[in-house]
Amino acid sequence: AAVPAGVLALLLGAMLWAPWLVLHGAPLAELSGDQDFQLFLHKNLEFTRKIKGDVAVLQRIVCDTFQLCKEEELLLVRQDLGIVQAPLEQCHSRTFQAEACFSQIRDGLRAYHGSLAAVLELLPEHTSLVETLQLDAANLSSNIQQQMEDLGLATVTYPTEGQGPLPVFSSRFHHQVGGFFILANFQRFLETAYRALRHLTCL
């Protein structure tokens, strides 16, 4: 029987929103049963969850301190700031490759480690939390790099567009909005990374 168009649209929508469920060509058959690999994945899932929690705390602080809470209200300002999302398309493409996904997670964590300096300047009274977040991002990036080497996975370096020096903010308000979007982008990045790691535990 033919699938009704509405059902087909829903199925396609679900696949697009959760592309890690339809990964093909993953060279992981020999890794998925590896105990060390599974231990690595579970440890880094927990680590990623902790980092997500700390980012959420900082997002609440930015909301409470500067009344910057809703992304849609700030999109026009965002266009002037030159803040981009670190790419993670290799973690949810249909031609998923562990090497490429891990490499993008590693590179993105390094980029956010650097851009959190802008948040540190913005919230001097929360230096300890921001510095802990930077340290955790650096440690997770190093963990992934080390595990890739241990597993013999090829490391790929992706160009991180727009992730050079921190943007120069033309006003205090732009700095505040910049901090807001750095945290919002980092949270989205972590959510995608978390789902990709979780998917790998199920292979």
TrEMBL record:
Transmembrane segments: none annotated. Keywords: Disulfide bond, Glycoprotein, Growth factor, Secreted, Signal. GO terms for molecular function: cytokine activity; granulocyte colony-stimulating factor receptor binding; growth factor activity. The keyword Secreted applies. InterPro entries: 4_helix_cytokine-like_core, GCSF/MGF, IL-6/GCSF/MGF, IL6/GCSF/MGF_CS. One of its GO terms (cellular component) is extracellular region. Its main location: secreted. Residues 1-25 form the signal peptide. Gene3D superfamilies: 1.20.1250.10. GO terms for biological process: immune response; positive regulation of myeloid cell differentiation. It comes from the Eukaryota. It is found in: Secreted. Belongs to the IL-6 superfamily. This is MGF factor. It comes from Grus americana.
